[in-house]
Design goal:
Two copies of one chain form a homodimer. The first copy, chain A, is of the alpha+beta class. The first copy, chain A, contains 22 helices and 15 strands. Chains A, B: It is found in: Peroxisome.
Chain lengths: 632, 632
């Protein structure tokens, strides 16, 4: 099962876990006879940043990053993605600081740069001799990259670009690595050639030299944050900073020595889209990371609920307790079981979805870019939302213990809260998904051609019919489940298209019509995501031949499908399920819960998080809290 | 409007806000020409604890706590509750450390103790000479107080009680104040007299003397937490600690010098219930505090969204941006407006609910205890859940700025996460609410008497009928709204009673039958809470005669009612609303949003949070982030 969930590079992952366990830099602590690693979050942000840097240097010396930028091919990309998963299991700051350096700065050089840039920068970046950051967002413009206000002009006499921050809202903001450690940055800026704006382009600028700020660079700290305090986010002002002409990353466009602007992509929109490409890899790692954080939370919360229950029957106190305590537990357990078990089960679907996303990403072609964009947007939003919800429920299920930083679950919420808005606000991403689906719909209608792509082929088949009386076995049937998901997506896409066109017929612009239909757009985005995730589950299930495993996966798949139906009110609102059928779904969820409860511990063990990366309450928490443990 | 929301002691509140603004202890900082106060959360927990203590001492010297324990009457209780609201607006640790000292330790002396205890302890407590804590929960037993394992025996020779921690799971856990500052504690313990257990009783024990631990007391730290790091939560072990016989808090039961156990309350269940009474005041302040935190979050998020929008039309950058940026904002705003405005509107209902709860609490009588217990349980759960949701949406609406600690919204989430599980786990509280309603139902049925109490009188009237076609004006009619809430509560109570009795007829115990019906219990708890909160809204509305204000309140009330109907799937699941009517509700919510949007800033200004207690992004965030501001 672990192989199915982790998907790839299991041995590499274990090697890296081991590497972290070997060094005191990862802050090992003994609790109740077991060793746990976790950063000391009681340190000031300044201390946490220094520790993150030291950990990166240790990992770099051990060869963890070898090939991250200089090797090519699916194998090395998967190895890197696996390592990022593993590093994030230890600490989000560690994975983010590395993500900025390798996936933003490094990818920018790789994708926007050409051979001379690769030759000059990639090896030093991989060896962490150069420390890169990625100056895209500004105080006034976050998600709206197109609106950034930094301006770069060209001085043909000196063959240099001149970068400037024209106003306070143009200061670069949230730049990871900028506050303390980065030596270089990619700067996103409007490129103004002879008074004509060519749109957003990317440049390389050095910001520190031997630890000192370079001339005409001003930097300030972003300050204390609710999480990620091990990352030194900073703000940058450019005071007519001069850089050589060669520092324009010129894969998409170039400026000749005498100042002529040249671009292979004539359409400014397409040119701009090309510059957002590295953010796709960001969304892939965020989506995958979200699943691993849910795994940590659930592994801890479920183990705690099982040990806490076991403990209550150990006769330690006066007899009345022994009689009393289990009854109290019985009062709590159904609630816990419902939320925890069902969250856990959703987790399997999320794992398969993340693996699918990683695979289409590493196998990307120019033709698949659009699909990757839409799927990564949808999955990033759904998986990160799901992660926050899972962590919240895990925290509450652990009661007060969930609030102790060393127990991780509560702390992870603050660390990962950023997920839902960075590299694209989730709500905006979901609206973009619906917009993309609508474009497909209009294209298919106009050309009177069948749907192709985004998994919408089911729209070409007759509309599925849901039986009026759903039995238990019907509810667990994958064909019914597929039909229910397809029916919802099809109907919502039809409704959405109709509403948008109705608004347009009343004279609204296309843009406005879309805005006014945002409720249906939300519903549709969710329908698309659920159906796509469900498909990855069906595909993962098909690869398994071991019968007991296949049976459990079948239960998990049904649980995922039925919980989606129970939780999205659209099934009732638009009549895909009658109230009778909805009641049958609700009942079946409870039944599935009890069938899956005996597997809970087994399933938790297959999540692939080593004990040392969980927390004391996941094991013998009485020993971990004993007086003798205080003395250690 | 502010008077309506704050409800009481407006001048006292302003005086206390002013007192905090006068002292450097409250960490004032200038940002963009405005001063803001907020603790420095980048300090280690040790530093934060010392700062909290210093702030308390400052407030104590200024007379803030005068009369909190030594005065009696509604006036002085309301003043205290107002002050707790205000202190929590500055910092949760400050209000919690004070709450433990005054409302837990102080109330225990007051309510469980008798005259000699009052004379001996209350004045020194009020003056903060004695620093008290409240040792109730243990490692092994949190919400299940009855199961605690600490044991106290009586030594009649020396006329002393002997308190002991018999096993590691009996260590007192999460005791606020115990780790560093408390000098005394109330200890909850099983009382064992001559081998017979008399259940849980409360004792006074000294734990520190002139800064040193007392003999036979061991204390350890609970460590770093995800919030509330300014509170020194600790763990206590008692090694046969001897206390004088007089230290039993004897209002409910006593032990004679020669060791006889005497109690006015014979039934151990009732005796135990008497000991939980101080937790009611905890729930009242938690519920009220939750509303104020939502106010902070919304005041910041709404002001930010308004200023951010305003900023986008200032021409700072190249022209393309000027054209481009507003369209991007238009794309975002409907989403923001929907969540923020609707959350804000719910907030008004929550304010009225909290004020109602405070009033029934300060006017409490022995007869109203049961109602206060049920209402405080329901409102504590609903208001704290709502607070977490509001803060999460505010954080996301502020984007990255919501993650900066100085901007408060994101940070408050971690600070207040504890709300949903302390002083009663929310899920457990809601189940207790449904259980209490069921008991009323059974009592009314058995005696064939009308319903009385908990607002269930509507059950005596004929079942309301919802029109099959709801027009806009019908939807905004308070009678229809009341009917919809009553219909749902009535039907769910009937269904719940039927399901429990069906399980019992199949041989399940009453307890088990209740457990198996937990889904209906959840639905019913929510129905009761929404209907009760709605009633407080109607009552608050009735006190207003100013017409424009009354009109706005009418819109707010309709918004609250319709959002409840839109969000609780029970309305569709059980057919209280047809799909057509549900669609009408959804449409009307959108309409109400746009009608209320012009009032947004005005409404925010009436929330009663002084500017200095908000954050830089609520005002001119460009100035607050400018380079000149860095130099300050």
């Amino acid at each position: 099962m672990r192989k199915l969930l982790d998907g790839h590079n299991l041995e590499d992952r274990d090697w890296l876990f081991g590497l972290m366990l070997q060094s005191p830099l990862f802050n090992p602590r003994e609790r109740g006879g077991k060793v746990f690693v976790l950063p000391d979050y009681n340190q000031s942000m300044e201390q946490q940043r220094e520790m993150t840097l030291k950990r990166i240097q240790y990992l770099s010396e051990r060869g963890v990053f070898t090939g991250w930028l200089t090797s090519r091919g699916i194998e090395s990309e998967l190895r890197m993605l696996a390592f990022i998963d593993v590093l994030a299991i230890f600490d989000h700051s560690l994975s983010i600081k590395l993500g900025v350096h390798f996936l933003l700065w490094g990818s920018a050089i790789k994708f926007f740069g050409t051979k001379s840039h690769h030759d000059k920068w990639l090896r030093d970046t991989e060896n962490y001799v150069i420390k890169g950051c990625f100056a895209m967002s500004e105080l006034g413009h976050g998600s709206n990259v197109r609106g950034i206000e930094t301006v770069t002009t060209y001085d043909s006499k000196r063959e240099e670009f001149v970068i400037s921050t024209p106003c306070e809202s143009a200061q670069k903001y949230w730049i990871g690595g900028a506050a303390n450690h980065a030596t270089h940055t990619v700067v996103f800026s409007q490129l103004n050639i002879n008074g004509s704006n060519q749109g957003v382009h990317a440049f390389i600028a050095q910001i520190r030299d031997a630890g000192n700020l370079c001339p005409n660079i001003r930097i300030a700290d972003c300050g204390h944050k609710i999480g990620l305090n091990g990352v030194d986010n900073g703000r940058i002002w450019f005071d007519n900073v001069r850089i050589p002409r060669e520092n324009l990353l010129n894969s998409v466009a170039d400026v000749t020595p005498d100042g002529k602007y040249l671009s292979a992509i004539k359409d400014p929109d397409q040119r701009f889209a090309a510059f957002l490409a590295p953010l796709t890899s960001g969304r892939v790692t965020i989506a995958s990371g979200a699943v691993y954080q849910s795994k940590i939370g659930l592994a801890i919360a479920i183990r705690y609920s099982l040990t806490r229950r076991a403990f209550s029957v150990t006769p330690n106190g006066p007899e009345v307790l022994l009689l009393d305590y289990p009854s109290h537990q019985r009062r709590l357990l159904p609630l816990l079981a419902k939320t925890q078990v069902s969250q856990q089960l959703l987790l399997y679907a999320m794992s398969f979805a993340a693996n699918y996303l990683k695979m289409i990403y590493v196998k990307r072609t120019p033709e698949s870019n659009k699909t990757i964009h839409v799927v990564s947007s949808a999955f990033k939003a759904v998986l990160t939302w799901h992660n926050m919800r899972t962590l919240q429920e895990c925290r509450e299920a652990c009661g007060g213990q969930g609030l102790k930083t060393e127990n991780r679950v509560g702390h992870l919420k603050a660390e990962y809260d950023v997920q839902s808005t960075f590299e694209g606000d989730n709500n905006v991403l979901m609206q973009q998904v619906s917009k993309a689906l609508l474009a497909q719909y209009i294209a298919a209608q106009k050309r009177n051609k069948p749907f192709q792509g985004f998994g919408l082929e089911h729209m070409n088949r007759p509309c599925p019919v849901i039986p009026s009386q759903l039995t238990s076995s019907a509810l667990r049937n994958s064909e019914f489940q597929t039909n229910a998901f397809c029916l919802r997506e099809r109907d919502l896409l039809n409704r959405f298209a109709a509403e948008v066109s109705q608004h347009q017929s009343k004279g609204e612009s296309k843009e406005n019509a879309f805005l006014l239909s945002y409720q249906l757009a939300d519903d549709l985005g969710r329908a698309f995501s659920d159906r796509s995730i469900f498909q990855t589950f069906i595909e993962a299930e098909a690869t398994v031949s071991d019968l007991p495993l296949k049976n459990v996966l079948g239960l998990l798949r049904s649980m995922y499908a039925l919980i989606c139906m129970e939780e999205d009110v659209a099934f009732l609102r638009y009549g895909y399920l009658s109230t009778n059928n909805a009641a049958a779904v609700r009942k079946e969820v409870t039944k599935l819960c009890s069938e899956l409860r005996p597997h809970a511990l087994g399933l938790v063990s297959s999540l692939g998080i080593p004990d040392a990366f969980l927390s004391p309450i996941a094991f013998n928490w009485v020993d971990a809290n004993s007086w003798s443990s205080v003395k250690n």
